[in-house]
Amino acid sequence: MLNKLLIIIPVLNEVNNILPIIEKIFKFLPGKRKHILFIDDNSKDGTREKIFLAQKKFNKIYLIKRDRKLGIGSAHKVGLKWGFKKKYEKIITMDCDGTHNPIYINRLLKKLDKKKCQIVSTNRFLDKNSLNDWDLWRILLTKFRHKLIQFLLAIEYDSSGAFRGYLVKNINIKHIFLAKNNSYSFFWESIFILSKKYKIKEIPIKLPGRLSGVSKMQIKDILFSFFYLIKIYIRK
User: Fold this and answer.
1) Is the pTM of this model over 0.85?
2) Half-sphere exposure in the Cβ direction for 9 (13 Å, CA)
Protein backbone atom coordinates (compact mmCIF):
# COMPACT_ATOMS: atom_id res chain seq x y z
CA MET A 1 0.00 0.00 0.00
CA LEU A 2 1.58 3.25 -1.15
CA ASN A 3 -0.36 5.65 1.07
CA LYS A 4 0.65 4.71 4.60
CA LEU A 5 -0.36 7.55 6.91
CA LEU A 6 -2.71 10.52 6.59
CA ILE A 7 -2.85 13.25 9.22
CA ILE A 8 -6.10 15.25 9.08
CA ILE A 9 -6.09 18.78 10.51
CA PRO A 10 -9.24 20.96 10.29
CA VAL A 11 -8.46 24.69 10.44
CA LEU A 12 -10.27 27.99 10.81
CA ASN A 13 -8.16 31.14 11.21
CA GLU A 14 -4.99 29.36 12.38
CA VAL A 15 -2.45 31.33 10.32
CA ASN A 16 0.21 31.38 13.05
CA ASN A 17 -0.10 27.67 13.78
CA ILE A 18 0.22 26.17 10.29
CA LEU A 19 4.01 26.08 9.91
CA PRO A 20 4.72 25.08 13.55
CA ILE A 21 2.39 22.05 13.35
CA ILE A 22 3.84 20.95 10.00
CA GLU A 23 7.42 21.30 11.21
CA LYS A 24 6.69 19.32 14.38
CA ILE A 25 5.01 16.53 12.40
CA PHE A 26 8.04 16.19 10.13
CA LYS A 27 10.36 16.35 13.14
CA PHE A 28 8.65 13.61 15.12
CA LEU A 29 7.80 11.38 12.14
CA PRO A 30 11.06 11.28 10.14
CA GLY A 31 11.15 8.83 7.26
CA LYS A 32 7.51 7.81 7.46
CA ARG A 33 5.37 7.89 4.32
CA LYS A 34 3.02 10.54 5.61
CA HIS A 35 0.63 13.03 4.07
CA ILE A 36 -1.08 15.99 5.75
CA LEU A 37 -4.60 17.07 4.82
CA PHE A 38 -5.91 20.45 5.95
CA ILE A 39 -9.64 21.18 5.78
CA ASP A 40 -10.21 24.93 5.83
CA ASP A 41 -13.62 26.48 6.55
CA ASN A 42 -13.00 29.74 4.67
CA SER A 43 -10.40 31.30 6.97
CA LYS A 44 -10.03 35.08 6.66
CA ASP A 45 -6.63 35.54 8.33
CA GLY A 46 -4.31 34.16 5.65
CA THR A 47 -4.44 30.53 6.76
CA ARG A 48 -4.94 29.25 3.22
CA GLU A 49 -2.08 31.34 1.89
CA LYS A 50 0.17 29.91 4.61
CA ILE A 51 -0.83 26.38 3.56
CA PHE A 52 -0.08 27.22 -0.08
CA LEU A 53 3.41 28.34 0.95
CA ALA A 54 3.87 25.16 2.97
CA GLN A 55 2.91 23.07 -0.07
CA LYS A 56 5.85 24.59 -1.93
CA LYS A 57 8.26 23.78 0.90
CA PHE A 58 7.03 20.33 1.91
CA ASN A 59 5.84 17.37 -0.14
CA LYS A 60 2.47 15.72 0.27
CA ILE A 61 0.44 18.48 1.88
CA TYR A 62 -3.14 18.70 0.69
CA LEU A 63 -5.95 21.21 1.23
CA ILE A 64 -9.71 20.92 1.02
CA LYS A 65 -11.24 24.40 0.75
CA ARG A 66 -14.79 24.99 1.97
CA ASP A 67 -16.68 28.20 1.33
CA ARG A 68 -18.03 28.69 4.86
CA LYS A 69 -17.87 27.41 8.42
CA LEU A 70 -19.61 24.02 8.35
CA GLY A 71 -18.53 22.66 11.73
CA ILE A 72 -15.56 20.81 13.18
CA GLY A 73 -17.38 17.47 13.09
CA SER A 74 -18.26 18.02 9.45
CA ALA A 75 -14.60 18.75 8.68
CA HIS A 76 -13.55 15.47 10.28
CA LYS A 77 -16.13 13.57 8.25
CA VAL A 78 -14.92 15.16 5.01
CA GLY A 79 -11.30 14.39 5.86
CA LEU A 80 -12.01 10.81 6.87
CA LYS A 81 -14.06 10.19 3.75
CA TRP A 82 -11.16 11.52 1.65
CA GLY A 83 -8.65 9.35 3.50
CA PHE A 84 -10.72 6.17 3.27
CA LYS A 85 -11.30 6.75 -0.44
CA LYS A 86 -7.55 7.15 -1.00
CA LYS A 87 -7.01 3.88 0.91
CA TYR A 88 -4.57 5.07 3.53
CA GLU A 89 -3.44 2.43 5.97
CA LYS A 90 -3.78 4.63 9.07
CA ILE A 91 -5.37 8.01 9.73
CA ILE A 92 -4.60 10.43 12.57
CA THR A 93 -6.93 13.35 13.33
CA MET A 94 -5.78 16.31 15.40
CA ASP A 95 -6.24 20.03 16.11
CA CYS A 96 -4.00 22.79 14.78
CA ASP A 97 -3.96 25.10 17.81
CA GLY A 98 -0.88 23.59 19.47
CA THR A 99 -2.75 21.66 22.15
CA HIS A 100 -2.22 18.38 20.27
CA ASN A 101 1.49 17.73 20.30
CA PRO A 102 2.67 15.61 17.30
CA ILE A 103 5.03 13.78 19.65
CA TYR A 104 2.02 11.61 20.57
CA ILE A 105 1.40 10.47 16.99
CA ASN A 106 4.01 7.71 17.20
CA ARG A 107 2.38 6.44 20.39
CA LEU A 108 -1.01 6.31 18.68
CA LEU A 109 0.51 4.45 15.73
CA LYS A 110 2.26 1.92 17.98
CA LYS A 111 -1.08 1.06 19.58
CA LEU A 112 -2.60 0.51 16.15
CA ASP A 113 0.41 -1.54 15.03
CA LYS A 114 -0.25 -4.05 17.81
CA LYS A 115 -3.51 -4.82 15.98
CA LYS A 116 -5.41 -5.31 19.21
CA CYS A 117 -7.68 -2.39 18.43
CA GLN A 118 -9.07 -0.50 15.47
CA ILE A 119 -9.21 2.96 17.05
CA VAL A 120 -6.85 4.72 19.45
CA SER A 121 -7.76 7.93 21.23
CA THR A 122 -6.00 10.27 23.63
CA ASN A 123 -7.24 10.64 27.20
CA ARG A 124 -6.78 13.86 29.18
CA PHE A 125 -7.77 12.29 32.48
CA LEU A 126 -5.19 9.50 32.75
CA ASP A 127 -2.51 12.05 33.69
CA LYS A 128 -3.48 14.10 36.74
CA ASN A 129 -1.32 17.01 35.54
CA SER A 130 -2.67 17.05 32.00
CA LEU A 131 -4.80 20.17 32.36
CA ASN A 132 -2.55 22.24 34.63
CA ASP A 133 -2.22 25.04 32.05
CA TRP A 134 -5.96 25.56 31.74
CA ASP A 135 -8.18 28.13 33.42
CA LEU A 136 -10.20 26.78 36.35
CA TRP A 137 -13.57 27.30 34.65
CA ARG A 138 -12.43 25.34 31.60
CA ILE A 139 -11.13 22.50 33.75
CA LEU A 140 -14.42 22.31 35.64
CA LEU A 141 -16.47 22.45 32.42
CA THR A 142 -14.38 19.74 30.76
CA LYS A 143 -14.51 17.41 33.75
CA PHE A 144 -18.24 17.96 34.19
CA ARG A 145 -18.88 17.15 30.51
CA HIS A 146 -16.69 14.06 30.78
CA LYS A 147 -18.51 12.73 33.82
CA LEU A 148 -21.92 13.55 32.38
CA ILE A 149 -21.19 11.71 29.13
CA GLN A 150 -19.82 8.75 31.08
CA PHE A 151 -22.94 8.62 33.25
CA LEU A 152 -25.56 9.09 30.54
CA LEU A 153 -24.01 7.00 27.77
CA ALA A 154 -22.11 4.47 29.91
CA ILE A 155 -18.85 4.83 28.00
CA GLU A 156 -15.50 4.83 29.79
CA TYR A 157 -13.47 6.84 27.29
CA ASP A 158 -12.42 10.48 27.12
CA SER A 159 -14.81 10.80 24.22
CA SER A 160 -14.83 14.52 23.39
CA GLY A 161 -11.24 14.83 22.13
CA ALA A 162 -10.27 15.02 18.44
CA PHE A 163 -6.75 13.51 18.69
CA ARG A 164 -7.32 9.97 17.43
CA GLY A 165 -5.97 7.19 15.24
CA TYR A 166 -7.90 4.89 12.91
CA LEU A 167 -6.84 1.57 11.36
CA VAL A 168 -8.59 2.10 8.05
CA LYS A 169 -8.86 -1.41 6.61
CA ASN A 170 -10.60 -2.71 9.74
CA ILE A 171 -13.23 0.03 9.94
CA ASN A 172 -16.40 0.54 7.90
CA ILE A 173 -16.62 4.29 7.32
CA LYS A 174 -20.43 4.04 7.28
CA HIS A 175 -20.25 3.44 11.02
CA ILE A 176 -18.42 6.76 11.54
CA PHE A 177 -21.12 8.54 9.56
CA LEU A 178 -23.78 7.17 11.89
CA ALA A 179 -22.72 10.10 14.09
CA LYS A 180 -25.02 12.79 12.71
CA ASN A 181 -23.72 15.82 14.56
CA ASN A 182 -21.46 18.13 12.55
CA SER A 183 -20.15 20.22 15.42
CA TYR A 184 -18.23 19.40 18.63
CA SER A 185 -20.68 16.68 19.67
CA PHE A 186 -19.48 14.60 16.74
CA PHE A 187 -16.54 13.43 18.84
CA TRP A 188 -18.41 11.90 21.76
CA GLU A 189 -21.27 10.72 19.52
CA SER A 190 -18.87 8.88 17.21
CA ILE A 191 -17.05 7.22 20.14
CA PHE A 192 -20.42 6.18 21.60
CA ILE A 193 -21.32 4.50 18.29
CA LEU A 194 -17.90 3.09 17.42
CA SER A 195 -17.32 1.63 20.90
CA LYS A 196 -20.19 -0.77 20.25
CA LYS A 197 -18.61 -2.04 17.06
CA TYR A 198 -14.83 -1.78 17.47
CA LYS A 199 -12.07 -2.16 20.03
CA ILE A 200 -10.87 1.24 21.26
CA LYS A 201 -7.67 1.86 23.22
CA GLU A 202 -6.43 5.07 24.84
CA ILE A 203 -3.11 6.70 25.63
CA PRO A 204 -2.55 9.42 28.28
CA ILE A 205 -1.86 12.92 27.00
CA LYS A 206 -0.86 16.26 28.47
CA LEU A 207 -2.93 19.04 26.97
CA PRO A 208 -1.46 22.55 27.19
CA GLY A 209 -3.37 25.73 26.51
CA ARG A 210 -3.80 27.05 22.98
CA LEU A 211 -0.53 28.50 21.64
CA SER A 212 -2.00 31.08 19.26
CA GLY A 213 -5.37 32.38 18.12
CA VAL A 214 -8.68 31.98 19.90
CA SER A 215 -10.99 29.04 20.55
CA LYS A 216 -13.86 28.61 18.08
CA MET A 217 -16.19 27.11 20.68
CA GLN A 218 -18.98 29.46 21.79
CA ILE A 219 -21.58 29.36 24.56
CA LYS A 220 -24.22 28.27 22.05
CA ASP A 221 -22.03 25.27 21.15
CA ILE A 222 -21.88 24.22 24.80
CA LEU A 223 -25.64 24.56 25.26
CA PHE A 224 -26.42 22.73 22.03
CA SER A 225 -24.04 19.93 22.98
CA PHE A 226 -25.81 19.51 26.32
CA PHE A 227 -29.27 19.24 24.78
CA TYR A 228 -27.98 16.98 22.02
CA LEU A 229 -26.48 14.69 24.68
CA ILE A 230 -29.86 14.47 26.40
CA LYS A 231 -31.46 13.67 23.05
CA ILE A 232 -29.03 10.81 22.38
CA TYR A 233 -29.49 9.53 25.96
CA ILE A 234 -33.26 9.36 25.52
CA ARG A 235 -32.92 7.55 22.20
CA LYS A 236 -30.30 4.97 23.25
Assistant:
1) yes
2) 30
